[in-house]
Amino acid sequence: MNAIEVKNLRKEFKAYSSRSGLKGAFRDLFTRNYKVVPAVNNISFSVSQGEMVGYIGENGAGKSTTIKMLTGILTPTSGDIRVNGMNPHKEREKFVRTIGVVFGQRSQLWWDIAVQESFRLLKKVYKVTDEQYDDHMQHVIKTLDIEPLLDKPVRKLSLGQRMRCELAAALIHNPPLLFLDEPTIGLDVLVKLKIREFLKEINQKYNTTILLTTHDLSDIEALCERVIMLDEGKVIYDGALHHLKENLADGKELHFQFLEQVDLPAVKKLTSGMPVKWDLDEKEQVFIANLENDDLLISQVIAIVVAAFKIKDIKINETSTEEIIRNIYEKGAVEVG
Question: Which part of the chain is the ABC transporter domain (predicted)?
Fold first, then answer.
């Protein structure tokens, strides 16, 4: 069974423009010029029950618009949506009891009351029995380590504490489908790891379907076997994450750290005329050479750099997922054999 089915989904918005001059401003009072802009452009995909799928794209690609249509907040311009067997915007009351939603920048908790009071209110909204609540939420509260936070008002929580409570709130009714939009934004590494482990656990324990939208690709790598990539409102890749790496990570990264002061132009000059692209991680002072997976070329670059500068450390890495995806957006649609 599919938790999500989307066919030829489209959402258009009107972009208004103002006429110039006083006469133009007067005319704008009665008629406005506008053009129709597609935010989501005839996309189709399905997500099976129990899948964890990464839904990724650059800012303005249409990710949030899609999530809002899938959760019933926005009505599509055209196309068909079935989520948990229902039309999200037509069967709203019944539908919302089958989903959980966490938006990284928006709260579903009441700001001035204790966290557990918010939980009690949501329990009544979703018509969860005491027995169901106790059975499910004891595990959630313990796993997310939020028991010490239950008596605190939300306004007194740190961002990491609040996000753990937001996640717990989204799961009070133990929904079969969870939408996560930037759930780890601004969080420290330890909180991110805790949330990731929890999401893996509920997926395995309850077969919860998770659609994850994030700019943090480490979240995608840790949780999702499949990714759907969006660009300018269109799906440019839908498939396994490891296929991207196998088919498009045909390069290597050489990481150099030097014992002496070196600048990027000097390093670039060494390999002038060679198929090498250099980057600099300024924080770590690591110079990164991106090049093809060619043993001879790799040996030549290492030999040239070692001969020119005193080396502190060298590492040879596969091209990162972030670099692969950045290249995809620069080149356009993906063809994976």
Answer: 24-257
Q: Are residues 192 and 167 in the same domain?
A: yes
Low-confidence stretches of the chain (pLDDT beneath 70) = 24, 26, 104-105, 245-250, 319-320, 322, 329-337
Angle between helices 159-170 and 130-144 (to 10 degrees): 150
Asked if residue 28 is part of any domain, the answer here is no
What's the pTM value of the predicted model, to 2 decimals? Answer: 0.76
Residues 236 and 108 in one domain: yes
pLDDT digits (tens, 9 = 90+) for 128-183: 999 999 888 988 999 888 999 999 999 999 888 898 999 999 999 999 999 998 88
Q: Which domain holds residue 257?
A: 251-318
Q: Are residues 241 and 262 in the same domain?
A: no
Check whether residue 275 and residue 225 sit in a common domain: no
